[in-house]
Amino acid sequence: MEREVSAMLGVVLERRPATSRWVDWVWAVPEVVADPPETHGWREIARDGETVRYLSAPHALTLHHKMVEAYDSNIETGAPCVWALLEASDSGAEPGWRVFGLTADPYEAEGFLERPDSLVERVPMPPATVAWMARFLTAIPEAPAFRKRRRTKAVEERQIFGKAPIFNPDGRSEEDGS
Fold first, then answer.
1. Which of 102, 103, 99 lies closest to 71, judged by CA?
2. Backbone angles phi, psi at 120, to 5 degrees
3. From the CB of residue 43, how many other CB atoms can be counted at a distance below 10 Å?
4. End-to-end distance of the chain based on CA atoms, in angstroms?
5. Can you list the alpha helix ranges (DSSP code H) found in the chain?
6. Residue 102: Cβ-neighbour burial (10 angstroms; 0-12, 13-18, 19+)
7. Cβ neighbour number for residue 150 with a 10 Å cutoff
8. Rounded CA gap, 33 and 42, in Å?
9. How far apart are CA 107 and CA 80, in angstroms?
10. Which is more confidently placed, 82 or 145?
């Protein structure tokens, strides 16, 4: 069993005109691509009027054996997803985004949403990646079931040298005689 495995994916970023008067462009990640060609940064792959698509590859989607529950919950939704994590780039080149990472863990993606300069997009996982992830999850041994601990009984203190016990299981106080 491997503790950590990675698959290489490509991120497709789309820029299209916004309908808002406050923003010129809307940026979105419509898909990720399995087994992409290497691009060394963003490469324009399609143009339809003002809508432009870019590809950046390769980026690693890494699965770790301790995050099995998160991956299981992702697959059990019926529509497994990959979250593309992008952050704003100061390079001045088009597009102004840098791929920070890819994750199959919804909780990690949720944590990344707190960053003000980020773009987090949930996209469908390619079928080949779903099969790869399922093989990894079946190779992981089943985690032991949760067992609730039982409390041990409190030991009653004996009265020694004229002192009253600190704890009395009857709930009575010896000082007040009740």
1. 103
2. -115, 120
3. 14
4. 64
5. 68-76, 106-112, 127-139
6. buried
7. 6
8. 14
9. 14
10. 82
DSSP state string for 57-70: EEEEEEEEGGGHHH
Distance of alpha carbon 146 from alpha carbon 158, whole angstroms: 37
Query: Dihedrals φ, ψ of 137, to 5°?
Result: -70, -35
The whole model's pTM is what? 0.76
pLDDT in tens, 113-168: 888 888 999 999 999 999 999 999 888 887 667 888 888 887 776 667 766 666 66
The phi, psi pair for 134, rounded to 5°, reads: -65, -40
pLDDT per residue as tens digits for the range 3-59: 899 999 999 999 999 999 999 999 999 999 999 999 988 999 999 999 999 999 999
The span from the CA of 158 to the CA of 174, in Å, is 13
Residue with token string 């020694």: 160
Written as one letter, the residue type at 105 is D
